[in-house]
Amino acid sequence: MSKNIVKVGDINCGADELFLISGPCVIEDESIMMKTAEKLKEVTERLNIPMIYKASFQKDNRSSVDFYRGPGIEEGLRIMQKVKDEFGFSLVSDIHYPDQVKPAAEVLDILQIPAYLCMQTDLVVGAAETGKVVNIKHGQFLAPENMIKPAQKIESTGNKNIILTERGYSFGYNDLIVDPRSFYEMRKTGYPVVFDVTHSIRKYGIPSADPNGGARQYLGTLARAGVAAGIDGLFIETHPCPSEALCDAASQLDVNQLEEFMKPLIELHNIEVSYRK
């Protein structure tokens, strides 16, 4: 399969080196964001793995109007810029509305289209027209081969800086299912494919603060399956104390466990690359 290499800072997404997208689900207070970034910097330097820092300034798809949705775009981007200035990470965050595109593009290196919104033409095309890298989350309702459709909307602007991210299908009663065939189908687009493993273990319908709102016991198994299937990057939401996180508390990985979690995945990726060659 031919592959487009997408440049994010000094990271060649889609080349043979596995890359990581990591950080808290949503931007909380500045100290948590900086503490997480500091630990991620230490871990990724020891592992020698390139990393992009992720946190959402707004989570507009929470299941209750009472749940924390983030600080908003102005304060959120200020904190993200501070992370970039201090630690040198490239940045990614979600955008939900066309009027968020321009201010977000002034700070972020990647504009992320949430899964629910991947077919929203004005949003997707507006993000593409900035020339920035666009990460399209795979809609839970969309067959993987149809992810070429939102990618083509981006291509219509002349922008081919596209990343596709798998995060599971809605199936049955609030379960998300990861079908390894989706990695194969999305790789056929020629664009780098990322696996958002922590979102794939969320249990819909259960508040994320409830310990039953996520199935962490499957993280390692699913991550290994994705790496063995040939993904280019892993998306792992991390937090210094997941049980106290304001969003996705039951599914985020403790950032202090990330190093040991990643070691076998890097080894497996190297084997997969050698097999491919």
What features would you describe in this structure?
This protein is α/β, with parallel strands linked by helices and 277 residues long. It has a single domain, classed as Alpha-Beta Barrel (TIM Barrel), CATH 3.20.20. The chain contains 8 helices and 13 strands. The protein has helices at 30-47, 73-87, 101-105, 121-128, 148-155, 181-187, 219-228, 258-276, and strands spanning 6-8, 11-13, 19-23, 51-54, 90-94, 110-113, 133-137, 162-166, 169-171, 175-177, 193-196, 233-239, 253-254. An 8-stranded parallel beta barrel has the order 3-4-5-6-7-8-11-12, surrounded by 6 helices. It has a two-stranded antiparallel ribbon with strand order 1-2. Helix 1 runs parallel beside helix 2, helix 1 crosses helix 8 (258-276) and helix 4 (121-128) crosses helix 5. The protein is globular, with a radius of gyration of 17 Å. The relative contact order is 0.16. The model has no long low-confidence stretch (mean pLDDT 93).
Question: Would you spell out the secondary-structure blueprint of this structure?
Answer:
Elements: E1 6-8, E2 11-13, E3 19-23, H1 30-47, E4 51-54, H2 73-87, E5 90-94, H3 101-105, E6 110-113, H4 121-128, E7 133-137, H5 148-155, E8 162-166, E9 169-171, E10 175-177, H6 181-187, E11 193-196, H7 219-228, E12 233-239, E13 253-254, H8 258-276
Parallel strand pairs: 3-4, 3-12, 4-5, 5-6, 6-7, 7-8, 8-11, 11-12, 12-13
Antiparallel strand pairs: 1-2, 9-10
Helix pairs in contact: 1-2, 1-8, 4-5, 7-8
